[in-house]
Amino acid sequence: MQATLYDSPYYRDQFSTPAMRDVFSDTGRFASWLEFEAALARAESSLGVIPEGVGAAVTAAASTDNLDPAAMKDHFERVGFAILPLVKQLIAACPEDAARYVHWGATTQDVLDTGLVLQMRAGLALIEAELDGVIAALVRLAAGHRDTPQAGRTFQQHAAPITFGYKVAGWLDEALRHRARLPELKDRAFAVQFGGAVGTLAPLGGKGASVRAALAQELDLRDPDITWHTGRDGLAEMVFWLGLVSGLLGRIGTEVAMLMRSEVGEVREPYVPGRGASSAMPQKRNPIACPQIIAISARARALVPQMMESQVQEHERGIAAMPVEWMVIPEAFLLASGALMHARPMLEGLDVDAAAMRANLDMGGGLIMSEAVMSGLAPIMGRGAAHEAVTAAAAAAIDSGRHLRDTLEENSAIMDALEPGALDALLEPGNYTGSAGAMVDAVLARAAKEGFTQ
């Protein structure tokens, strides 16, 4: 039985990718635990904590092929701790002289935490690759539409002209910031966990810190200064980062869906025959990727406060905070993979209708250029007088249903202040995008430094 959308063969590929599900599957989870146990044995063997050769023997036995998941589950349900069944079966798979040293000096949480870190590292590699694909698509869109005029909208109403490249560069700017956060995020989150019962590594005497350092080297993880059994900020930060990325994708999905509206029609998701068709209305071409991205983003953001609850733990080992992490962290990675899975091809093939953007700019009878006219008149008439004159002309245009040009031309003070042809220039949307192009160039230059060229 598949009880959730993540498990359902029918739905799961709408909300996560197969690769990410593999990372956080039971097989992936068990493999990460075995990787810890094998690396620990190698580290301890190398330092003489356990006999030479045990590390190689445990490593040879530490394969998911040697596990019986059904028996593990039965054992888990009886003892209530997830690692004991795995350790028991790993011991059984090892030669007798090596078996006694399996899990030497470790505690259940060491395996669970380090295994989860290894899964997160594998999952983040998948996320990072897809994020880079999204960034590359945004670079192409921003560069290609640097000077494509579009109506800027505030409170969902026409405000003043922008360019579509400027809008996309805003998305790109944020995506680059998220990418820039990754190196420090990885350093804080990808730390080995090895402390024993209360984190002091007491069973290893004076060699505890050396074993932890060797274990970290074996797993290519950071060696922390102190055990972090109840210090969960690195894991919380990871989920927060995934929430931030999902939030950006949700914003992009919302904007694309809004611009696909019949009354706007400025962009469309890539066309695939039959995709987006209504079961009742033959004429419709509905957004398909956008609703999934928006829904995934909402759920991913909701996981952030839940993850922060795990930061509050008691003494040297919390009661119930870790199970929260076991639920939240895999879901956050699954959802982020799903959002990127929809967003990347949508952006790579986005259908941008520059003619519709121009038509929408013109549909308001020139009123969107009111600020431009006022700004052009202000140096001549003074800002107060220019504002009053253009406001009156705009009100007259709205009341009469005429073009702003007509009501402006009826004001002799305005026309006397302007050189011939100046009004045409002030009413041209492409002339009033300010520093939009320069800002697009600045973002593209930063992207190019990161290796994303047009």
Characterise the protein shown here.
- The protein is mainly α and 454 residues long.
- Helix content is 63%, strand content 4%.
- The chain contains 21 helices and 4 strands.
- The strands form 2 sheets. A two-stranded antiparallel sheet has the order 1-2. Strands 3-4 form a two-stranded antiparallel ribbon.
- A hairpin with a 2-residue loop joins strand 1 and strand 2.
- Helix 12 packs parallel to helix 14, helix 13 packs antiparallel against helix 14 and helix 16 packs antiparallel against helix 17.
- The radius of gyration is 30 Å and the shape is elongated.
- The mean pLDDT is 94.
Structure keywords:
63% helix; 21 helices; two-stranded antiparallel sheet; mainly alpha; 4% strand; 454 residues; elongated
